[in-house]
Write a structure and sequence with these properties.
By secondary structure, the protein is of the alpha/beta class. It has helices at about 10, 70-75, 90-100, 130-145, 160-165, 190-195, 210-225, 250-260, 305-310, 330-340; strands spanning about 85, 105-110, 150, 170, 175, 190, 205-210, 230, 260-265, 270-275, 275-280, 285-290, 295, 300-305, 315-320. About 25% of the residues lie in helices and about 20% in strands. Helix 3 links the parallel strand 1 (about 85) and strand 2. The longest helix is centred in the middle third of the chain and has 16 residues, at about 130-145.
Length: about 350
């Protein structure tokens, strides 16, 4: 748990004021609720998650922690106060807005949904992601505290942004689940976001096709919600090593290998869904099937790059941030992308 801003206690101990990349122009950070909450992802303990040694690396939620000083010192102070629009109110959008506000600009967020949060809103419906929910709530609170204008239920258009005569636009339109073309017969079919929203419609037996960080977290959460869950993945792991973490390894394996409501098959080739059964070939080539009241298909995320590019000519300065750039895909990268994009304004 850390904050990049200097405190009165630091000043008493003789700690020097941060460089202009950290300086706050019109907002005073003084309360305990301003401390960025740790999400317990353990990414700060390095990239070598399975072999060690584990070393200090990059924080997922504080983009200045673990970053070489020369990168931060290279961020110039803004010359003038600007009018800034942020398209999208997910984690990247909120972080971009906060960074721009901290640099002294007037900021407005345009969010098409009824509430801020983006993909982090799935944490509201998961028993396993409460730390992410806490971080989402922290971002929302900071947006309010910093006087950032928020326009919810507002799908921004290029015409709308041009009419606003903004000096700079930060585009954070995010990503959406890839739509699967698999035909499902005799069972309900959902994508991952629908599965979180419609848990009551899933039935008892749920088959999750596809794993990785998002698919695995959904499957384990549904098992904890007393659904009987089977995960089928073509890969040789349930989730990427980078997301496992050195300290979480034993705990995670202990849960998914022993939970009574959770089973899985690695290196599985799904053949189809017919008559309420999912048929697949296991790692030995043997054909098997599993009963399914519903099927959740996870095929990854698609960046909303086409949507983002519509805003490229809406102001003299336009920057893309977060998942819509096509270069992110998880929270750490999205937050850092947003910080550095907004630091150019």
């Amino acid at each position: 748990m850390s904050s990049s801003f200097i405190t009165s206690q630091d000043q008493e101990r003789g700690v020097e004021e941060p460089d202009n990349a950290h300086r706050i122009s019109n907002v005073l950070y003084a309360g305990a609720d301003d401390i960025i909450p740790c999400i317990a992802c353990w990414n700060c303990h390095g990239i070598s998650m399975t072999k060690g040694p584990w070393h200090s690396s990059l924080c997922s939620v504080n983009p200045t922690w673990g970053t070489p000083p020369y990168k931060l010192q290279g961020i110039s102070a803004p010359g003038i106060k600007k009018k800034v629009a942020v398209i999208g109110g997910g984690p990247a959008g909120m972080k971009a807005a906060l960074t721009a506000a901290e640099r002294g600009h007037n900021v407005t967020i345009y969010e098409k949904d009824a509430a801020l949060g983006g993909l982090l809103k799935i944490a509201d419906k998961s028993k396993t992601r409460w730390t992410f929910r806490k971080y989402k709530e922290w971002l929302i609170n900071q947006v309010k505290k910093n006087g950032i204008e928020v326009k919810t239920n507002t799908a921004a258009t290029p015409e709308m942004i041009k009419a606003g005569k903004y000096d700079a636009v930060l585009v954070a339109t995010g990503a959406e689940p890839v739509v699967s073309k698999m035909k499902v017969d005799g069972a309900k079919s959902f994508n991952i976001l629908e599965a979180y929203d419609k848990k009551d419609e899933l039935g008892q037996n749920v088959v999750v096709i596809g794993a990785g960080k998002y698919g695995f977290e959904l499957a384990l959460g549904l098992a904890m919600d007393v659904h009987k869950v089977t995960t089928l993945t073509s890969g040789d792991r349930l989730f990427e090593v980078d997301f496992q973490g050195p300290h979480n390894m034993a705990n995670q394996e202990g849960i998914y290998k022993n939970h009574p409501n959770f089973s899985y098959a690695l290196n599985a080739e799904v053949k189809g869904v017919t008559g309420g059964k999912v048929t697949y070939k296991d790692s030995t080539g043997a054909e098997k099937s599993v009963q399914a009241d519903s099927v959740v298909i996870w095929s990854g995320l698609k960046p909303r790059m086409d949507e983002a590019e519509k805003f490229l000519n809406c102001a003299d300065e336009v920057y893309l941030a977060g998942d819509c750039t096509g270069k992110n895909g998880h929270l750490q990268k999205a937050i850092r992308s947003a910080f550095y994009a907004a630091s150019q304004v």
